[in-house]
Amino acid sequence: MRIAVIDLGTNTFNLLIVETKDDQTYQIVYNNKLPVKLGKSGIDKKEIRPDAITRGLNAVDRHLQTVREYKAEKVFAFATSAVRSARNGEQFVKMIRQRFNLEVEIINGDREAELIYFGVKQAVSLNQGKVLILDIGGGSNEFIIADHENIYWKKSYPLGVARLLAKFKPSDPISIEEIEFISNYLEERLSDLFEEFKKHKISTLVGASGSFETIAAMIRADDPNFESETGIIPEAVSIDLTDFENLYQKLINSTLKERKQMKGLETMRLEMIVVATLIVKFILQKLKLQQLIQSNFALKEGVVYELMNLKPATL
To answer: What is the C-alpha to C-alpha distance for residues 92 and 48, in angstroms, rounded to an integer?
Structure first.
């Protein structure tokens, strides 16, 4: 059976189409994202602005055209932080239902974290002990402490990159004072994470979704052999901490104009990547983590896993 999953995120609307097999495995036949910036100019006011609604509806329309082209038999759609926190989030979902006959499930942060875990554990071997999983979104960041068998703790924080940009409005380039302000804010807001972290023996951070994909792509792009690569992206890659530190320094000292020339950096992430890497740097440093792994699987792959393993009747 061919199924499609649409993830209506704060920055991007993502589409995954897979072919499921009888042995509970699946093959990815299509995977793409469209920039939407659903939270632009409104996320700090808890609203989706009219122009963002238009961008969102257009992205859903394009994704559904692709779904039809690939002849997917079932479509599952999920909305996350920007929609669940907006006063008009339900109205936006209703517009999608009326216009496209598509049901969108608005999921809470706990459910989002669980689905991210189901995605990550397909891409990253979690048999070596507990890890800290982090998904940096536009509206929220999900932290999960887990191993291959269990989730020990999870929480979604409304500290996504779009929210931090709206709150702090950093300079171009970002100043040392602004970095300190954001770091102090994270220190204060993530206090319960730090307390929980002390109860577990963890040395690895696993980063899921867009920001980490961009970090990995930019590091690969700085490799002299980058152009000769096959183009096949593995499900998970290990990121050298020195490479990450060099990228972090490069980004925090860059202007928007300079970032436009950087290899591996998608246009949709030009404004957000600095704060995203700042969050990663803060977590790595604060928790003294020694390994960084980037997972190419996150929420939408987690939905497929859940459908096939936990809710087969849905299919």
So the answer is: 8
The residue count of the chain comes to 315
DSSP letters spanning 225-257: TGGGS--PPPSEEEE-HHHHHHHHHHHHT--HH
Going from the C-alpha of 32 to that of each of 17, 168, 210, the distances in angstroms are 9, 30, 11
Q: Please name the CATH architecture into which domain 2-107 falls.
A: 2-Layer Sandwich (3.30)
Buried-exposed string 83-122: b where 16+ CB fall within 10 A, e elsewhere: bbbbebbeebbebbeeebebebebbebebbbbbbbbbbbb
Per CATH, the homologous superfamily of domain 122-299 is Exopolyphosphatase. Domain 2 (3.30.420.150)
DSSP letter for each residue of 33-84: EEE--TTTTTGGGT---HHHHHHHHHHHHHHHHHHHHTT-SEEEEEE-HHHH
CB-based contact 88:128 (threshold 8 Å): no
Q: How far apart are CA 119 and CA 16, in angstroms?
A: 12
Residues 196 and 229 sit within 8 Å (Cβ to Cβ): no
* 314: confidence class by pLDDT, cuts 50, 70, 90: confident
Comparing 2-107 with 122-299, is the CATH topology the same?
yes
- HSE toward the beta carbon, residue 155, CA cutoff 13 A: 13
Q: What are the extents of the domains in the chain?
A: 2-107, 122-299
What would the pLDDT profile of 122-155 be if each residue is shown by its tens digit? 999 999 899 999 999 999 999 999 999 999 999 9
